[in-house]
Design a protein that fits this description.
Layout lengths: L1 E5 L6 E5 L12 E11 L2 E6 L5 E5 H4 L11 E7 L2 E6 L3 E9 L12 E6 L4 E5 L7 E5 L5 E4 L1
Antiparallel strand pairs: 1-2, 3-4, 3-6, 4-5, 6-7, 8-9, 8-11, 9-10, 11-12
Length: 149
């Protein structure tokens, strides 16, 4: 049997062929519904929604998800053998623009974009009419601006 396997820790994909009599050990992946509380140095502290335990997670385990974490935001932590190997975020999050250039009166080029720094420090391209202090929706899968909130 020809298979494609993905390493849950690194995301690497390998192709491998197995004989019909070979057996594989099943990996048990646990998903926990959590809420992001705060950042403590290099760790991000989450609260398990079922038993209210606080779970510290290093930024390396979270990867790009750190760009979209907002206090009291929901996240699904994925673990294997008590090791956090990933995180699933909602499809979109609402974040406030911390800094961007103000829109210039009369500059109405269709589809024009400008960089904006969000409250998490992530930089996203937004339309010219969006200003500082406004809340926007950002797609967590692509990291792109969706709409004003």
């Amino acid at each position: 049997m020809r298979t494609k396997l993905r390493n849950a820790r690194t995301g690497a994909v390998i192709e491998r062929t197995y004989r019909s009599d070979e057996r594989l050990e099943q990996a048990i992946i646990d998903k926990r519904d959590t809420q992001y509380l705060y950042r403590d140095g290099d760790d991000y502290i989450f609260m398990d929604q079922s038993n209210f335990d606080q779970v510290p997670v290093c930024s390396k385990s979270l990867g790009e998800a750190t760009n979209f974490l907002k206090e009291t935001g929901k996240a699904m932590l994925i673990s294997y053998d008590d090791e956090i190997i990933g995180v699933e975020l909602p499809a979109s999050v609402e974040l406030v623009i911390a800094d961007t250039e103000p829109g210039v009166q009369g500059d109405r080029v269709s589809g024009a974009r400008k960089p904006a720094t969000l409250e998490t420090g992530y930089v996203v391209q937004v339309p010219l009419f969006v200003g500082p202090g406004e809340a926007i929706k950002v797609d967590t899968r692509t990291g792109e601006y969706m709409t004003r909130a």
